[in-house]
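Structure ticket #2291
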Amino acid sequence: MKYISIFVTVPNVNVANKITEFLVEKKLVACVNIIPKIKSVYWWENKVCKSNEHLLVAKTIKSNFNKIVKEVKKIHPYEVPEIVCVDIKANKDYLMWIKEYAK
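Resolution: structure written out below.
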């Protein structure tokens, strides 16, 4: 089984909480960390933009990724939300915990 962390930037704490609660309650993820007050600098519509955002870091199994993308896009207010996953390696007990709660 493969395990991933998914990174999602959001514009405010309300969206952060809404996405987090949905993903955890539906057992699509075992855990989400909400990292407040990050500064994002990016290109949008041919200009450099700066935004204050929050970063969600969700831990789950890789087979849930496509469903998570679909569900986050339904909730997320951005036209093109950041939904990025990276493979993770961790201690066996932690991975077993993810497997137990991310179905």
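Closing remark: The mean pLDDT is 97.
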